[in-house]
Amino acid sequence: MHVAVLGAGSWGTAVAGVLAHRADSVGLWCRREELAAQVRATGSNEAYLPGVPLSPRIAAGSEFAAVVAGASFVVLAVPLQQLRSRLSQWAGEFPAVPVVNLAKGVEAATGEFGTEIVREVLDVPHVLALSGPNLAAEIARGQPAATVVAGTDLAVAQEVAEAFTTPVFHAHAVTDVVGVDVAGAFKNVVALAVGMVEGAGLGANARAAVLTLGLSEMAALGCRLGASTSTFLGLAGAGDLVATSTSSLSRNHRVGVALGEGLPLPAAVQRAGGTAEGVATAPALLRRDADLPFVRDVVAVLEGDVSPVQAVSRLLSAS
Ligand SMILES: NC(=O)C1=CN([C@@H]2O[C@H](COP(=O)(O)OP(=O)(O)OC[C@H]3O[C@@H](n4cnc5c(N)ncnc54)[C@H](O)[C@@H]3O)[C@@H](O)[C@H]2O)C=CC1
Ligand SMILES: O=C(CO)COP(=O)(O)O
């Protein structure tokens, strides 16, 4: 079996390593040939996962057609805000195989989730989402984790989940694609808020309250969009929410901490490094659904209208 991973950031590279346990070969598409050449030369992705040796079954390249040729399925590891434009460039030559989206967020221009964008742009037989408490650095180091693969066709989701499963990485097939999309996007906004609590030194009680209120609003939104409540109590919901909100490995959490410490947004994003999807996703969620007071308070901080301490006070008093 050959599979293709498009996007060689920290998560795309870690996922290529997971897939290399079962696949005969994994194509890893890099945006820049310079990075592909470095990966081929050193057997590691020094820009995004420094010091982590990659399986020899991973073949890095920057030519789309060569990377996807013969793939049983294709994995998208491109940040959410860049997904549509990148897919549009590939659409004419995209293979007719299942596609698994990894990006967690909501598109600023449209209010759409990852699988909705993929379905709009590509003509492929199945669109799935993989999501869960999956901090890339831990998975790249081989630490144990679990996740879900969501697809409306359970048999296809099971086949894909099997391809992702290793002795330490456990992928479970589910059918609630909407719930998994909502959870993956929303938890990034909650991680920003929980980070603010930490950065401002507001304590464990406030942190637990903010995390809980975020989960509650996430589930309410999901149910309005047709998701199942049980998804929000599972790995893609509460699981990912807790991992992202409480770990310093999370970029969204780090942006929140920096805001809580009083840094302006551009400096907070720069200090956090990497892709913090929650920053663009928070206002985009409001475009999708106006009845989200938790998200609104986070956006007010991002836009500099209120301080993190004021926002947390508003969140707690509104509960
Ligand atoms: N890093 C993690 O622990 C996890 C990340 N994710 C999600 O995976 C997605 C990708 O994130 P990371 O790999 O962490 O990001 P990253 O910040 O480590 O890397 C970003 C990658 O996107 C590529 N990229 C940027 N603009 C692009 C464009 N226009 N076209 C194609 N590629 C482009 C960069 O070249 C780079 O390879 C995000 O939506 C993130 O929320 C999901 C689970 C875990
Ligand atoms: O989604 C993630 C863990 O599941 C990664 O979180 P960050 O994007 O905040 O680093």
UniProtKB/TrEMBL annotation:
NADPH binds at S10, W11, R31, R32, Y48, K104, A136, R251, E277. Keywords: Cytoplasm, Lipid biosynthesis, Lipid metabolism, NAD, NADP, Nucleotide-binding, Oxidoreductase, Phospholipid biosynthesis, Phospholipid metabolism. Pathway: Membrane lipid metabolism; glycerophospholipid metabolism. InterPro entries: 6-PGluconate_DH-like_C_sf (IPR008927), 6PGD_dom2 (IPR013328), G3P_DH_NAD-dep (IPR006168), G3P_DH_NAD-dep_C (IPR006109), G3P_DH_NAD-dep_N (IPR011128), NAD(P)-bd_dom_sf (IPR036291). Its main location: cytoplasm. Pfam families: NAD_Gly3P_dh_C, NAD_Gly3P_dh_N. It is found in: Cytoplasm. It is an enzyme of class 1 (oxidoreductase). NAD(+) binds at G7, A8, G9, S10, W11, G12, A136, R251. GO terms for cellular component: cytosol. The active site is at K187 (proton acceptor). It catalyses: sn-glycerol 3-phosphate + NADP(+) = dihydroxyacetone phosphate + NADPH + H(+); sn-glycerol 3-phosphate + NAD(+) = dihydroxyacetone phosphate + NADH + H(+). Substrate binds at K104, R251, N252. Sn-glycerol 3-phosphate binds at K104, G132, K187, D240, S250, R251, N252. GO terms for molecular function: glycerol-3-phosphate dehydrogenase [NAD(P)+] activity; NAD binding. Residues 176-312 form the Glycerol-3-phosphate dehydrogenase NAD-dependent C-terminal domain. PANTHER family: GLYCEROL-3-PHOSPHATE DEHYDROGENASE (PTHR11728), GLYCEROL-3-PHOSPHATE DEHYDROGENASE [NAD(+)] 2, CHLOROPLASTIC (PTHR11728:SF1). Belongs to the NAD-dependent glycerol-3-phosphate dehydrogenase family. This is Glycerol-3-phosphate dehydrogenase [NAD(P)+]. The gene is gpsA.
